């Protein structure tokens, strides 16, 4: 298949591009490199030293003989996007290319506006490009489990059977997101659903949990292929952030009670889920939703798991509870369905002590790169 991976220089996109290329697909990366510029803006960095995109694809070709083409540009520049479609004629368009940090979107008006403009307009451009230039192309769009929030009922995969005043319907599952970033994803979902209905586009919305881990078999092949790993208070996600805190002798900082429960998956499962979606495209006009996660944990449980493994490896760590910078329920019901990807063949890599130790070891190698002042959250929701 000809597959464009938009956001292919990022944490999820880079290992996905390599994995799909390894499976024999003709892969093209589109990215405007804005994530690297955000590191400069925040005076932060990836724990792992990442090579430039150009060096990465040259190394991949050297090691495997496989070529990954690159287009450096912005989804918000429609002429650029149209040119990518003209030159690649994709069978599938994997869309990772969005601003993905909730705290970044909550910094101030400018960052909220940037997040929603970048994400919502970029995605709308992709929908138009598919309509105009590749109507049969399957859009594989990364959404997030955070779109649903934490309702007091089970979270279904996209749709809910509702009976109201004696009548029944299958409706989009209600969305109660918790940041301007998560809201941008909800707006995207609505736009995609509408485009599927009116233009007959085929789309899969992957409501992904929080991704942890670093390496895949492909990124492990050479240091030049190493993936990025975020730890700062803005881009560092729970679990990866705890592991880095443990490796650097920092307290594990749980926000509030830590009873907030979230869905998680290993980066190795992210790449496989994209392959499953690509191999089993949605029908023309179908807006398909998969919940892309394998397990869920409370934030406190995660910190305790990391504390145990770190302790066994000579890195005693203390768990501290910080005043929660976010506005979110700390005591809530959480149960979400995730059977569709499993039914299509996903075999999850579950979170074991061995997996935690593997990530911890990679972090230890680079721990002198961590800028300690960046670890504590600096953005509040108020
Ligand atoms: P990332 O920031 O590491 O990667 C995103 C990439 O997209 C970056 O390389 C960035 O330069 C590029 N990009 C952003 N806006 C662009 C634009 N307008 N035009 C072209 N390129 C652009 O993020 P990630 O962690 O790899 O996340 C990828 C996707 O998965 C996002 O859509 C995110 O919302 C979703 N997701 C991520 C997680 C997670 O835990 N990382 C969880 C759920 C969903």
From TrEMBL:
Family: Belongs to the NAD(P)-dependent epimerase/dehydratase family.
Name of the featured protein: NAD-dependent epimerase/dehydratase family protein
Signal peptide, first to last residue: none
Residue ranges occupied by any NAD-dependent epimerase/dehydratase domain in the UniProt entry: 3-291
Gene3D superfamilies xrefs: NAD(P)-binding Rossmann-like Domain, UDP-galactose 4-epimerase, domain 1
């Amino acid at each position: 298949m000809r597959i464009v991976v938009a956001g292919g220089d990022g944490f999820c996109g880079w290992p996905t591009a390599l994995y799909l290329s390894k499976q024999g697909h003709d892969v093209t990366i589109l990215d405007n490199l804005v994530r690297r510029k955000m590191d400069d803006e925040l005076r932060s960095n990836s724990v792992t030293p990442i090579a430039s995109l150009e060096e990465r694809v040259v190394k991949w070709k050297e090691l495997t003989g496989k070529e990954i083409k690159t287009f450096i540009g912005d989804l918000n520049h429609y002429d650029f996007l149209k040119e990518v479609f003209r030159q690649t004629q994709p069978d599938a368009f994997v869309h990772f290319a969005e601003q993905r940090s909730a705290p970044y979107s909550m910094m101030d008006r400018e960052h909220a506006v940037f997040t929603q403009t970048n994400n919502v307009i970029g995605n709308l451009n992709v929908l138009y490009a598919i309509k105009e230039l590749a109507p049969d192309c399957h859009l594989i769009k990364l959404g997030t489990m955070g779109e649903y929030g934490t309702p007091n009922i089970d979270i279904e995969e996209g749709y809910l059977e509702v009976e109201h005043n004696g009548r029944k319907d299958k409706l989009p599952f209600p969305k109660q997101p918790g940041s301007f970033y998560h809201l941008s994803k909800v707006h995207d979902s609505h736009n995609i659903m509408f485009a599927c209905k009116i233009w007959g586009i085929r789309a899969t919305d992957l409501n992904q949990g929080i991704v942890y881990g670093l390496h895949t078999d492909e990124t492990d092949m050479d240091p030049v292929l190493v993936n990025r790993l975020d730890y700062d208070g803005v881009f560092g996600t729970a679990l990866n952030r705890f592991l880095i805190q443990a490796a650097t002798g920092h307290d594990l900082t749980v926000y509030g009670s830590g009873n907030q429960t979230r869905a998680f998956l290993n980066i190795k499962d992210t790449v496989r889920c994209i392959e499953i979606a690509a191999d089993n495209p949605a029908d023309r006009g179908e807006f398909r939703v998969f919940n892309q996660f394998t397990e869920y944990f409370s934030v406190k449980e995660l910190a305790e798991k990391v504390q145990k493994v770190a302790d066994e490896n000579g890195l005693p760590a203390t768990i501290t509870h910080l005043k929660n910078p976010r506005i979110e329920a700390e005591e809530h019901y959480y149960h979400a369905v995730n059977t569709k990807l499993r039914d299509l063949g996903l075999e999850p890599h579950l979170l074991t002590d061995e997996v935690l130790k593997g990530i911890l070891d990679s972090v230890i190698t680079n721990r002198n790169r961590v800028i300690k002042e960046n670890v504590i959250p600096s953005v509040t929701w108020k």
